[in-house]
Amino acid sequence: MRTRTSLSCGAGRRRGRSLASLVLGVAACGLPACAAGTTFGDFDSGGDGDGGGIDARVTPGGREGGKGHQDARPESAPIDSGAHDSGADVGSPAKDSAPEGATDAPAVCIIGGSTYPSGATNAADTCQTCDPAKSTAAWTSLAEGTSCGTGEVCHATACDPGCFVSGTYYASGAANPMNACQSCQPATSTTAWTNVTDETTCAGGSCCSGTCDDEATSPSHCGVCGSVCPSVADGTADCVSRVCGIVCNPGYVLSGSTCVVVSTACPVTFPDTTSTTGGTDSSGTLGVGGTSEYRWHAGDYVDSTFTCSNATITQLSVSFQMSDSTDSYCTGTLSWNVMVNGTVVGTYSWFGGLGPGTQTITQAYTFAPIAATAGSYTIEYIATSTVCPGGGNWDWIPGGSATMN
What is the pLDDT of residue 262? Predict the structure, then answer.
């Protein structure tokens, strides 16, 4: 006997196994989900004389051939398809169904029968990782140059000692193609060049702090790495034959280790008859000097003050004579200091006990700059030794010369 029943999405209508097959068939055909109360069509639950079974015709809206078909059963009555009841409402989505369009990728990789979480490293190759976004069935190679261990980076899918600099891999010990004083030293850095040891030979001389320098001429590494020639005002440091020197700017001259302004020479007559004398013996002016006066004590002096256009001076040249009235009763070296504006700039001396006679003194002194006092300089000679009692005496002879620079 054939029984015809309509399938609709009414609440409370239930299905058995044969109905479940029908619903799955509907879903597989891609028909849209229905709202409650919508009739999908009819099915026969009995035999029809040709072997029996379910004969279903699904028609959206419960219409077949354009005509409405009344459901053979009340809307609220369950569909009994046999002894088994699935307990699911017809038209309700399965509880484990994913939302339409969902594409969540698994967060694991299944490789060689083993499961690995995302980000896991291949124990056989540290340059491979589980990246489910790229593959869930195979290892994914890390980017070229990725650090894979101490002093190691990924290169050609393998973890090798080396450096990855500016997008290029270099083996350990490889030289920087742009600087022979740098190389790949992965123990120090895998991402930058490292300076080679100082004093390593290079085409231009020696490597110093990552730069090839000629130690014979480099003021920064004169003679040896790190030996810096001192800078000076009004001049430049210079290195000649591995030795530091100074080159003064135009208009300056080297004085000791400094550059001073080239000055105008200031020649003067000193000592002269008007020069001041003083000390233990015969103070006043020099006068005719020579044997007219007697001097033999330390502290006896002669000086004169002169105007000079130079703001500072660094040189003094002198030439003058002294009377020597010492005798052999007392012999020994007699000494004097030479002073400019109260600063000792040099000395002179001669051997006493050989008189009577004349001693000629010619000397040149170079010293640190001495500034003028109110545009003037005072030159002074002062005895630093004493003739022994009964040993004679000495004096300056006027008419000497001095030149200040």
Answer: 74
> Is residue 80 pLDDT above 50, yes or no?
no
Determine the residue type at 6.
S
DSSP calls for 277-301: EESSS--EE-TT-GGGS-B-STT-E
Q: What architecture is the 266-404 domain classified under in CATH?
A: Sandwich (2.60)
Give the whole-angstrom CA distance, residue 305 versus residue 269: 11
Q: How many residues does the chain have?
A: 405
DSSP string, 248-264: EPTTEEEETTEEEE---
Q: How many CB atoms lie within 10 A of CB 296?
A: 23
Give the number of C-alpha atoms closer than 13 A to the C-alpha of residue 98, restricted to the C-beta side: 6
Q: 3-class DSSP state for residue 89?
A: strand
128 with 139: CB under 8 angstroms? Answer: yes
Euclidean distance between CA atoms 368 and 54, whole angstroms? 125
Going by C-beta distance under 8 Å and a sequence separation of 6 or more, which residues neighbour residue 341? 370, 371, 372, 373, 377, 378
Distance CA 302, CA 339 (A): 11
| CA–CA–CA angle 9, 15, 20 (5° rounding) | 95
Digit-coded pLDDT (tens) for 168-194: 999 999 999 999 999 999 999 999 999
Edge-to-edge strand ranges of the sheet holding 394-404:
266-269, 394-404, 312-324, 357-371
**What secondary structure does DSSP assign to 18-43, as a single string?**
HHHHHHHHHHHTTPPP--TT-EEEEE
What's the start-to-end Cα distance of the chain, in Å? 143
pTM, to two decimals = 0.40
Burial of residue 108 (CB within 10 Å: 0-12, 13-18, 19+) is middle
3-state SS, 150-188, equals: CCEEEECCEEEEEEEECCEEEECCCEECCEEEEECCCCC
Residue of 338, 324, 337 whose CA lies nearest to 296 = 324
Domain map (residue ranges) of the chain: 4-68, 266-404
Residue 402 vs residues 36, 76, 405: alpha-carbon distances, Å? 129, 139, 10
